[in-house]
Specification:
The protein is an alpha/beta fold. The radius of gyration is 20 Å and the shape is globular. The protein has a 5-stranded mixed beta sheet, sandwiched between helices. Strands 8-7-6-9-10 form a 5-stranded mixed beta sheet, with helices on both faces. The protein has a two-stranded antiparallel ribbon with strand order 11-12. α2 (74-85) links the parallel β4 (63-68) and β5. It has 6 helices and 12 strands. It has helices spanning 40-53, 74-85, 112-127, 164-174, 194-221, 251-262; strands at residues 2-7, 11-17, 28-33, 63-68, 90-91, 135-140, 143-149, 155-162, 226-231, 247-248, 268-270, 276-278. The protein has 2 domains: 2-95 and 263-278, Nucleotidyltransferase, domain 5; 107-256, ATPase, nucleotide binding domain (Nucleotidyltransferase, domain 5, 2-Layer Sandwich).
């Protein structure tokens, strides 16, 4: 069994599925909050416990693939994998095959989360008979990241903006009279109290941001451009005018599984707890 870990600032998405290429049976998917103070031992316990809650014994995990965009978290997750599964994860980054042609000025700067999104988006388009169409992948998280994929599936570049939760936090900290606001769709644009005014500004403002960036990227990529959404559920409220082909919350996990298939693992002989060695 393959375990895929997509570590972001707010949470770690986890997917457990059959190893190898082919359709993902989606055996289990869940999220664990990325508590900054959580130790490697705690991560190992959390991963093992959540898998058991899904009916999967940790001993069934044969391989782990990891994408992490939080530098301080990566070594703890690697140690946790050694403790929980006796395995060293394949970490997405330079030197790991992903099948993606990256046409940015500095390909090494591209976050592994966006690489995984792009790899999964290409596979999804191909599965639906839409290969050859350009695509904008919008990933909603602490930040909103827009990735531009050409008709030939090349990664051309990105646009990144703060997410609404960061914006709401900045408002509450920078404007003394404004409280923290919940992000949800407003009933009207003209708020009749402070809470409604904040909801209107955040929801409608960010919807306009998403629509405008997707529109501009699509105009540069071509009229037949598609949009694909991923990430946190608030993204469904910010769908661009052209709509999403689909909204896949854990798109990066699909990309991790595809990348694992491109990088065959060496056989592993398990030792005691937290130990492994190559056969």
């Amino acid at each position: 069994m393959l375990l895929a870990l997509d570590a972001r600032n707010a949470s770690v998405a986890v997917g457990a599925s059959a190893s190898g290429p082919g359709p993902d049976p989606g055996h289990a998917r869940f999220r664990i909050g990325a508590v900054p103070s959580r130790s490697a031992d705690e991560w190992a316990y959390a991963l093992g416990s959540m898998l058991r809650a899904e009916g999967i014994e940790p001993s069934r995990v044969e391989r782990v693939v990891l994408s992490c965009v939080v530098p301080s978290l990566a070594p703890r997750l690697r140690e946790a994998c050694a403790k929980a599964f006796g395995l060293e994860p394949l970490v997405v980054g330079p030197g790991v095959r992903n099948g993606l042609k990256i046409r940015t000025d500095s390909p090494s700067e591209l976050g592994s989360d966006l690489v995984c999104d792009a790899v999964a988006a290409r596979e999804l388009l191909a599965e639906r008979g839409l290969a050859g169409r350009p695509c904008v992948v919008v990933d909603f998280g602490s930040a909103i990241a827009f990735s531009a994929l050409s008709a030939s599936g090349e990664y051309l570049g990105a646009s990144i903006a703060p997410g609404p939760e960061l914006a709401a936090l900045a408002l509450s900290r920078g404007a003394a009279l404004l409280p923290e606001a919940r992000f949800e769709a407003p009933e009207r644009a003209i708020g009749r109290n402070t809470a409604q005014a904040l909801q209107s500004g955040l929801a409608l403002g960010f919807a306009g941001l998403v629509d405008r960036v997707v529109e501009r990227m699509a105009s540069e990529l071509g009229e037949d451009c598609l949009a694909l959404g991923s990430g946190e559920e608030y993204g469904r409220l910010l769908e661009p005018e052209r709509g999403f082909l689909d909204f896949v919350p854990d798109l990066a996990l699909d990309g991790l599984r595809a990348i694992a298939a491109l990088n065959p693992a060496e056989p592993v002989v398990r030792g005691g707890p937290g130990e492994s060695r190559r056969a």
